[in-house]
Amino acid sequence: MATTEQTFGGTPRKVTAHLTQNEKLSFEISSPGKKAYRLPPLDVPEVDPSTLLGEAARESTGTLPELSEIEIIRHFTRLSTWNYAIDLGMYPLGSCTMKYNPRVNEFVSRLEGIAEAHPYQPESLSQGSLQIVKLLQDCLIEITGMDTITLQPAAGAHGEFTGILLARAYHQSKGNTRKNIIIPDSAHGTNPATAAVCGYQVINLKSNAQGGIDVAALEQMVNEDTAALMLTNPSTIGVFENQIHKIADILHAKGALLYMDGANMNALCGKTRPGDFGVDVMHLNLHKTFSTPHGGGGPGSGPVACKKILEPFLPIPVVEEGSDGQLHWNYNRPQSVGRVRAFYGNFGMFVRALAYTLANGPDGLRQTTEDAVLNANYIRKKLEDVYDLPYNTPSMHEVVFSDRRQVKNGIKTGDIAKRLIDYGFHPYTTAFPLIVPGALMIEPTESESREELDLFVDAMRQIAREADENPQLILNAPHSTRVSRLDETTAARKPILRWKAHPASTPLTPDDTPAKEW
Ligand SMILES: *Cc1c(COP(=O)(O)O)cnc(C)c1O
Fold it and tell me: Which residues carry this modification: N6-(pyridoxal phosphate)lysine (predicted)?
């Protein structure tokens, strides 16, 4: 792929042009009779599908694209060049911890005995897989300082749901039905959504001037109706909650629990442990902190670690060592909240997270945390004279600027993010957290070298200059992509998830969007 040496606004761009700007849908390049596979002659008797499937058997497969093998390979390979990925460059999407997915994780997860293991395999033949589960559990318990864990939830939000179900079951077992969950205004949107889905009223807690918990306000708020506080630490502005012990004491004094959203554990791993600072239940995102693929490559994994008091309620099954020295799944747990996912969770992600943890070891994990924090602070120092820093509390693994200085030229955080694409970077997180109007939330992670950070800093500084000298350049960005500004609201609210064949008499034209039919 040739690097384009084109310039925009006088600066060389890091981006490479897309291989093709006009890839048709596979349906549109289809021609009847083509096949991308070749099967050997049938050597067993042919069976009528309806004898196997009954009424579920379909006579027609509908219209499917028909392409040769090389056509379909080229189609998807070309499409893949439209994607941005951590394997292409820095992905500073704040709060998401888009770190490198080490190749050793992929190597280990593809070993035959692991990749081909089946969830219905008898336990006696699954001891290796069960040991992977057990060892990862033990590592995560050690890292978080908690007493026990479930690996079942399939994402961070799913972990929150599971954790709050545990809290609810705990309160119910004590005969009380507490009604409220307190959530700071800086929280990730999944926190209030989780509380509501679990049947709780959400009480909003305003952040203090440093962006942390207003401890006096919290003390006023907590009472016998409070089930829990859901707290992200470090917070979504990348600030460590330095009153965390006090906060835990306030909750515990009223019989409430402290839930920690552990999505930001990349700032704490190997340095401090939530279990030691009063947290009762928390989730981890293996696809953030523990280097498993995040985004298109998923799936995710959101283990929930908790204290002993919540152990009886853990989802079934839980892995246990029997008197025979073998590992078993225990389903006989009468107080369990039940299953939260089919089988045992996203096992392939456990393998990758364990490979990452063991490859780093305790010192490596600590170094990772220190490097992540150093990188965020390097960016903060290099950009704070050109972008507004609304909270100057020390940053942990991410830094949040605002667009206050650029807004006077009509340029908002989203515009700066679009322009960053022209410089070859994935945008940072825009307009979140909500307590910072016009937020630019930047999380480099430990994966980035000094050289890559400097390229990013140069791009951001150049954009700040453009904002003063040529705002229109930014407002029309991105200039380097196949499509420029999209209608994001319509894309989110009315996604077109299916392609429908047009009758042969009305061939597709470029203006003829199949979307109209849906
Ligand atoms: C990413 C994130 C979540 C949700 O995790 P998912 O795996 O995307 O469901 C929750 N809280 C915070 C602070 C996060 O950054």
Answer: 288
Residues linked to residue 184 through DSSP beta bridges, in sequence order:
205
Ligand 1 site, residue 445, Cβ cutoff 6 A: no
Residues 345 and 407 in one domain: no
**What digits encode the pLDDT tens for the residues 19-32?**
666 788 898 899 99
The token pair at 15 is 């981006």
Residue 463, Cβ neighbours under 10 Å: how many? 26
Kind plus residue range of the DSSP H or E element containing 8: strand 7-8
E-strand ranges in 350-502 read 399-402, 429-430, 439-442
In the chain, the number of structural domains is 2
Last residue of a domain, one of 357, 388, 421: 357
Domain closes at, from 316, 334, 357: 357
The reply to whether ligand 1 has any atom less than 6 angstroms from the CB of 144 is: no
Q: Is 266 in the pocket of ligand 1 (CB under 6 A)?
A: no
In the structure encoding, which two tokens stand for residue 224, read together?
């016998």
Q: So what's the pLDDT on residue 3?
A: 39
Report the CATH number at residue 244.
3.40.640.10
Q: DSSP secondary-structure letter at 93?
A: B
Residue 12: cis peptide before it, omega within 30 degrees of 0: no
**Residue spans of beta strands (DSSP E) within 188-284:** 201-205, 226-232, 257-261, 281-283
Residue 177 carries which DSSP code?
-
Ligand 1: distance of its center to the CA of 123 in Å?
33
Q: What's the CA gap between 86 and 109, in Å, rounded?
A: 19
Q: Which atom of ligand 1 is nearest to the CA of 97?
A: 15
Q: Quick: pLDDT tens for 449-479.
A: 999 999 999 999 999 999 999 999 999 999 9
Mean pLDDT of 61-85: 89
Residue ranges making up the domain that contains 407: 370-488
Atom of ligand 1 nearest to the CA of 287: 7
Indicate whether 268 and 383 sit together in one domain: no
Average pLDDT over residues 387-407: 95
For ligand 1, atom 8, which residue shows the shortest CA distance? 156
Residue in 91, 93, 95 to alter for ligand 1 test, most ligand atoms within 8 A of Cβ: 95
CA of 283 to the centre of ligand 1 (A): 9
Query: Atom 5 of ligand 1 has which residue's CA nearest to it?
Result: 156
Q: Which of 1-15, 19-33, 150-164, 430-444 has the lowest mean pLDDT?
A: 1-15
Q: pTM here?
A: 0.89
Token readout for 147 is 């007493």
Three-class SS state of 469: helix
Same domain, 207 and 348: yes
Query: How far apart are the CA of 156 and the centre of ligand 1, in A?
Result: 5
User: Is the C-beta atom of 234 inside 6 A of ligand 1?
Assistant: no
